[in-house]
Structures are given as C-alpha cells and as structure tokens.
Design a protein that fits this description.
By secondary structure, the protein is an alpha+beta fold. It folds into 2 domains: about 120 residues, Rossmann fold (3-Layer(aba) Sandwich), CATH 3.40.50.20; about 190 residues, ATP-grasp fold, B domain (D-amino Acid Aminotransferase, Chain A, domain 1, 2-Layer Sandwich). About 25% of the residues lie in helices and about 25% in strands. The chain contains 10 helices and 17 strands. The strands form 4 sheets. A 6-stranded antiparallel sheet has the order 16-15-10-11-14-17. Strand 1, helix 1 and strand 2 form a beta-alpha-beta unit. The longest helix is centred in the C-terminal third of the chain and has 14 residues. The chain is globular, with a radius of gyration of 21 Å. The two termini are about 30 Å apart.
C-alpha cells in the first residue's frame, strides 16, 4: 500500500482527476485528500481527508510536510496550479524527507504558467504559435494586427477564467480593460482554426527527462460542459461561423495522430519537461499552433486512465517502485463526461483541520 497525499481535490479539479486515475490503477494506494474547502467532493472520495490553509498561507508548506510525516506519506501530488508553484519552490524540503513530488521542474513551470513566456519560448525555438500581443494597457490593443483574437490573462486563467473572444477593436479594448481591472495582465492571441480543430496532448516524461509516451485527444468543445463561450463570427473568413473557446472540462476522442504526437514530443524535449506536461493546440490548414502548455497533470488525467494511459501511476511505479518504463499500450476511442452528485450530511462537513505546530 502506497500512502499518497493529493491536494486541491474539489470536484472538477486536477487533484480530483488524479484521484480518479489512481482509483483505476492496479497498484494499491491509500489516498489522503486535502483541500481548503470542507465541501470539496474529493474529500469524501478519499480514504482520509483533511482541511488545510490556502497555498499562499505562510504555514502551508509546514502543515503539508507535517501531515506527510505523520501519515508516512511517500508521494505528494499538488492538485492546483497555485499549490504546484508553492510546492515547486519548496520541493527540496519534501525530497529531504523522502517524499516524491510529482511535479515538473521549476524552469518548465516558470515558462509554461505564463502564456507570454510560453509564446516567446515557442517562437524563439521554431514552434508555431498564434500571433500574440501582451497588453500592458488598453492602448496596446492598437498592436493587434489580426482579428478575431482570444483575450485572457497571461497568468492565472485556469479553467478558462476571464477568457473572451474579440472581433473588433472596441471589444478588444473592453475585454482588456476588464482583465486589467481584475489585476491581471492580458494577452491577445489570434483566433485560429475552428472549434473542431482543437487538440489536447499529454506528453509524459520521467522526472529525469526520459520520454515515455504521448496521447492525443481531439476535443469536442461544443457541449455544455466543455464550452466556455461561443459567438457568431462577423468578420473575414469567420463571418457566419461559430467561434468557440473550450472550458477546462475536456471530452473527446483519443485518436492515432502520429504527426501531432511527434511534434508535441519534440516540444516537450525542447522545453526540458521532466514529468507531466499537457499541450493545447489548434490545427489550421497544414499547420499546428500551440496556444498553451500546462506543466502538470491535466483535467483529462482520469479520462486518459480509462484508456489505460495512467500517468500518475506510471510515474509512481517507476520512481518509487523502480519499474522500467516503456511506451504505453493504450486504447483509442471516445470519452464522454458528466456531473456527479453526492449528498453530504451536516455532521460530515466537520472535516479534521490540520494545524501548524504552534496552533496545536
């Protein structure tokens, strides 16, 4: 039995997806779920559950480490981007206590959690990406050369938060002003392809950079769960067409697309990925344009595990149990998703709160 802590296990979160994937594994896991919200679904699906403070709390790392030590935890997986960043900055603390942290390396996290840095890396290394402009003020919208564009925060747009489509300068200024007022720096990226041309690709490497395999999902983004927004195209070649943006809840078909897979594997190697990596792209004509890279497990982690591509289990069995890794023999097919409900009694909401040492 392997004791594992998964943070951020609310319903629909990365942590919840990782938990579901590990439940599908043949390896025996004792899963300890932690979250800041006692109403988080994953707390009631874990073998043990605790409430911890937010990732930015100055005592978060100490509390998490003490929980791992007291429960003899061997593996830690952050289930949200904010927790991933904090754990990454303190990774050596966990390593010194023989706790395996399943996150990518600090340089990849730095590049890929900032969409402007990601775009710069792609263009500087010969990969195609949408024409992009960093909007430090509303007036920077005049630098946009092609419409329509997708506007979103350069940092912190998880789950497609604050993501909009602008088809003219008035809309671009409005949405950029809206994002700036929210305290975030927007990036404008040219809208490319159609809603049926979007793919999400998981490229898995070992924590020392050895390429394991990749899996391509052709996204279906027009369903209610998978669609963030859709508008009627008004300009250029998009006039009369539906323009759409995907949400953070993916579904679609796992397809055999070696050209896309190999290009994404080449990108993972170029950026120096060591661990889970998820690449979002659109195909426009003959070209593939990467618009986002997530240096972590994906919202499709459990989705992939259903097809026998169980990324967290593969990494744990290799790095903790010493098993060799080989290309994965996974299945092709369609995966659809829905909602899950659970009734919780008032007394069940009284989850144990894990405190810092000085608060005990």
């Amino acid at each position: 039995m392997i004791n594992i802590v998964i943070t951020g296990v609310s319903g629909g979160s990365i942590g919840n997806e990782v938990m579901k994937a590990l439940r599908l594994a043949k390896t025996s896991y004792h899963i300890i779920g932690v979250d800041m919200n006692p109403a988080s679904l994953g707390l009631y699906q874990a073998d043990e559950a605790y409430i911890v403070p937010p990732a930015l709390d100055p005592e978060y790392i100490d509390i998490l480490l003490r929980l791992c030590e007291k429960r003899n935890v061997q593996v830690l997986i952050p289930g949200s981007e904010s927790e991933m960043k904090v754990v990454s900055a303190n990774r050596q603390i966990f390593t010194n206590n023989n706790i395996l942290t399943l996150i990518n390396n600090a340089n990849v996290i730095d590049i890929c959690t900032d969409k402007w840095k990601t775009n710069s890396f792609l263009t500087n290394n010969g990969f195609k990406s949408p024409q992009s402009v960093l909007l430090k003020s509303e007036n920077d919208c005049t630098k946009i050369r092609r419409m329509p564009v997708v506007l979103k925060p350069s940092v912190g747009s998880g789950g497609s938060n604050l993501v909009f489509i602008a088809q003219d300068m008035e809309e671009a200024r409005f949405f950029s002003r809206y994002i700036l007022k929210a305290g975030m720096l927007p990036i404008a990226q040219e809208y490319l392809g159609t809603f049926d041309d979007e793919y999400t690709v998981g490229v898995l490497t070992t924590l020392d950079g050895g390429l394991i395999d990749s899996l391509v999902v052709h996204r279906r983004i027009m369903s209610g769960l998978s669609n963030r927004m859709k508008v009627r195209g008004r300009i250029g070649k998009y006039a009369g067409q539906t323009l759409a943006i995907s949400s953070g809840i993916s579904q679609g078909a796992i397809e055999d697309l070696p050209e896309i897979a190999s290009e994404c594997e080449r990108l993972a190697v170029a950026v120096g990925s060591m661990g889970p990596l998820n690449i979002q792209l659109r195909v426009d004509g003959e070209d593939m344009y990467v618009f986002e890279i997530n240096p972590r497990f994906s919202g499709t982690t459990a989705f992939r595990a259903l097809a026998d591509y169980n990324e967290p289990d593969i990494l744990i069995r290799h790095h903790l149990l010493g098993e060799p890794v080989n290309p994965v023999s996974y299945k092709y097919g369609e995966v659809v998703r829905g909602l899950v409900e659970r009734f919780i009694l008032p007394e069940e909401l009284s989850m144990p709160v894990y405190l810092s040492k000085k608060e005990e």
